[in-house]
Amino acid sequence: MSVLVTPGSDGRFGDFGGRFIPETLVPACEELEAAFADAWQDSAFRFELDEILRDYAGRPSIITECHNLGRQLGIRLILKREDLNHTGSHKINNVLGQALLAKRMGKSRLIAETGAGQHGVATATAAALFGMKCKVYMGAVDVERQQLNVFRMRLLGAEVEAVTSGSRTLKDAVNEAMRDWVASVVDTHYCLGSVMGPHPYPFMVRQFHRVIGDEAREQCQEYLGTHPDVVVACVGGGSNAMGIFSGFVDLPSRLIGVEPAGGAAVTRGQPGVVHGMKSYLMQDEYGQVAEAHSVSAGLDYPGIGPEHSYLASIGRAEYPTVTDAEVIDGFQLLARTEGIIPALECAHAVAWISRQAPSMQGQTVLMNLSGRGDKDVGQMMDILGGLA
Amino acid sequence: MTSTERTTHGQLETALLARRDTGGKCLVPYITGGYPGWQDAIRIAAANGADAIEIGLPFSDPAMDGPVIQQASEIALAKGANPVNILHEVRTLDVEIPLAVMCYYNTVFHAGHERFAHWLNEAGVSATIIPDLPLDEVGPWAQVADAAGIETVMLAAPTTPDERLVRIVARARGFVYSVGLLGVTGERDTLAGTATALAARLKAITDMPVLVGVGVSNAEQAVEACHVADGVIQGASMVRRLMDDGPEAVGQYVKEVRTALDAAFL
Questions:
Q1: What's the pTM?
Q2: Is A91 helix (H, G, I), strand (E, B) or coil?
């Protein structure tokens, strides 16, 4: 039996998920649930999506074996190259799916939240492609540390609003996008960027990202003749991880979702409800949501998608943490050994692999390289102060 | 699943029905708990003609609230407000009218349903308004609340379809909160057309009090809404006065709205 859950109308993955949202948005989520179900079983929609993923986004993404780093660590290390997609990360898979769906539903405007800006850039890209209006909410702290992506979004014709409430990071950007959607739900689709939020988003976004895992499974079979021993991805909300996990969840591969130590929903959180979902959540003794702290804007989130909470609760996936210092080392390690500059988010996965390699000698490790590091170069220059 | 067969009304519904029976309209001010002066604001509002008070338990991520209530919540939290110390203070307020709490669901969920209900009982709070706990998710809380004698107010929105409106009304206790517009809490220049349209749809299917909230911004708009509805909830316009001019200004404003409602309908 598959561990991959298709949630019923209650939107649950085990005890997690659901639809904890203002009444105003319930009909919109029901409409979206029905529209997605209809589109997903419509071969014309699937054909159009596959075509655009191939001809516009550049799928399938390749896999690359890291011979140098693998030799150094005593493992076989394979990267799934989502960094080579158009717009530079896996986010485009979900965004093209949701934008096509929004168009099919007759919506003329897309709104999105973004952390590092990768989802915002992808959404702005899809809006430009499909001729839709686009507004992206981004925490003021993230606007500051990801100025390149802010400018990219504006170049693409999107409006970017800096969110100054709360911790001024990703969670507050989600709140502000929800506030916009409550007022604009008639003509606007909320293009949520991760496997989180109210049902059907966690399910729908995972389905749009399954292509990562489905491709990687076939590629591993062809290249290795078997499945990898370990599958590793970084986790903020958890969309790239859920995408690659979904290709391996019914195989004996270990599944590792690496969280930042300062945003460790599974390790440091408890079940809670925010942003429309019940999931592990970092919070204080009264249920106030804690502020996450991570060097990577994309993982600076106190919660996690509900399907990850489910996989953690049944022991199918593990969610270890790495520190910012380890991440900064991991960022440089992949660059120097393989000539690949990873996004800071993915450097979490590199950091975990590098730390745990002694206990994985001779094993094959598949890592989802979900984004490229160009956007982080400015921030890393500040952190490293130039290199000797 | 839900039942309308209720032989008794809770404290909140009883008070609102009593106002309606006299031909008057209900006025429910919202005050952010923990914001400096909140206790006095509640006492003064009660003394100046409020029928019940909605006390906000501040939350870190108030996704249904606009800038005014967001800011009040942030300040209250920064000053150390939490559900326990707010509800503890509520016990000492000594007002005669029913009290409801407005909070986001994680406050309830994190405490645990039974424990939260116990806190409310201890504090003498009659009802809850939980804007991110829609009909489909309200069951477990509502069951505990029913058993504890706490009224679970339900929200209806302009986007809610007719058949769902019927089910919402059946599950509602205290009153039905008719959300005035598509949007978050905050003051607007005019009352949205959706406010009276939804109130009329609700009045057609229930005898329970129907109160309009979200976007009812002054006495004139309150009167306009009450041409259809049984009353209004006023949040941002109260909290802004509390923040700008203190509790006395809240009292003045409650008196102004009360006077306008009485003049128009009595």
A1: 0.96
A2: helix
B61 and chain A: CB distance < 8 Å anywhere? yes
Distance CA A97, CA A109 (A): 15
> B160 — contact with chain A (CB < 8 Å)?
yes
Q: Alpha helices of A289-365 — where are they, by DSSP H?
A: 306-313, 324-338, 344-356
Q: Is there a contact between B110 and A272 if contact means CB atoms under 8 Å apart?
A: yes
Provide the residue range defining the domain that includes A283.
58-89+210-384
A227 assigned to active site: no
Q: Give pLDDT, residue A167.
A: 85
How far is B22 from chain A, CA to nearest CA, in Å? 31
Q: A10, A16, A19, A23: best mutation site toward chain B, by most B Cβ within 10 Å?
A: A23
A42 occurs within a structural domain: yes
Question: CA A334 to CA A336: how far, in whole Å?
Answer: 6
A229 and A110, same structural domain? Answer: no
* Helix, strand, coil fractions of chain B, as percent rounded to 5: 50, 15, 35
Q: What is the pLDDT of residues B90-111, one digit of tens each?
A: 999 999 999 999 999 999 999 9
Mark which of A181, A201, A221 sits at the end of a domain: A201
| Chain A residues near residue B33 by CB distance under 8 angstroms | none
Picking from A19, A172, A283, the nearest residue to B137 by CB comes out as: A19
How far from B141 is each of B63, B107, B113, B133, CA to CA, in Å? 20, 12, 6, 9
Residue A15 lies in a domain: no
